[in-house]
Amino acid sequence: MKVTVENKKGLNKDIKVFIDKKTINTYMEEKYEEIKATVNLKGFRPGKVPKEVLKRQFGKAIFSEVLDKVLKDTTTKALEDNKIKPAGQPKLDLKTYGEDKDLEYIISVTELPKVELKSVENIKFDEYSVKIDAKEIDSRIKEISKSQNNFKDVDSDIKAVDGNLVVFDYKATIDEKDFSGGEGKNTQLILGKDLFIKGFDKQLIGVKKGDEKIVEAELPENYPQKEFANKKAKFICKIIAVRKAEVVKIDDDFAKNLGAKDLIDLKKLVSKQINDEFKNSLDRLVKNQILKELESYKVEEIPENLIEEEIKVLSQGMSEDDAKKSRKNFEDVAKKRIKVGLILNEFGEQNKINVTEQEVQAEVQKQLRMMPGQEKMVMDFYQKNPSALASLRGTVYEEKIINLIKTKAKPNKKEISKDEAEKILKQSQKYEHNHDHNHEDSKEKKVSKPKTSTTKAKSKATVAKKLTTKVKKVSKK
User: Are the CB atoms for 211 and 239 separated by under 8 Å?
Assistant: First the structure.
């Protein structure tokens, strides 16, 4: 194979590749031998079909397959040998090709630019820790206590009111006939919440322990047995107990019921919980600070094809006219996103940062926990959308890079109060809102605006996908 790199200046390069017909014929012979063992043709024993017969029968298909393989193998080798990292899929232009002919083609490729990766030790960022006031902790624990059901039996002559817990057995009928699911034991309802069957618990107001109460209610539309849905049922309820909610005493026993060692330990856990609630939001601010500083690093040139791809993403959902009006803004944003993405990629490669399959699956599980009740839908989405999984991998990759930068850079440690944290976050949201608004040329179109924190999803996940040397377009002349 003979390779010549042309247009050595700039990012756009043409690479001329020449492969003699002897090499092509070797590939063809190997392919004929491979299929010879598997082809069954009438009149020939398995594995004994002459090459000339195979050539007449399958020649064009075999050559097409061989050509594909040769192009992929030699394109990859030509790029690797010349240390060219493509920004997107190369385009191939076949000049000469055919059976028993030399192969000559041109690889047109846009190269990723050189990145000046300065030392990250000089990057400065704020490292927040939120000091939680004792009153805030006590207030949160009090709210938790209100959610804990603590019901005590009332005297047998006291009637049930809203907020009471009623325990009862029931037997239900439709048109005086029993039906599936029409019987229940020790059923518990908190009156006023209307969580059983609509309008059911209102009819239990005023019952006492030992009463028998007939309740009539319409079964819901989503009743498991469809034939009974929306039918009126009669419930004969035997009241076992009426219980009144009591204020939960906040003490060591209360703390132990919540999984803490004692009340002091519970307060520590609640303090950490409140702190963690702020941590994710404050970490996003820190991440933005780091990415902003990375913008000062030098990238010699931003590939035009990546800019165009990014502009398409930014202008999705807009009319052609609105997209044209916004193009200059989108172009500036695209350049920043791609630039920071390239810098992160370079830092990741130099520090040999990789994302394991286990880390990707852990992130998927995190997404599942964020959407309780919709786990199957989320899992199906990722299984059916490899690009979404690749984007998730990019997010994990970015987090690993940012975390490594944090360990090497200079943190400005700040201990702040909860009120100060809320103020900082509010100011940040206001800034982001104004920043996004300044990029909106069309008020009628809602376009997802790029935020610095999403750079990785559009750099590693997207750019890395474009690094593949898979043949996309072949011009046959």
Answer: yes
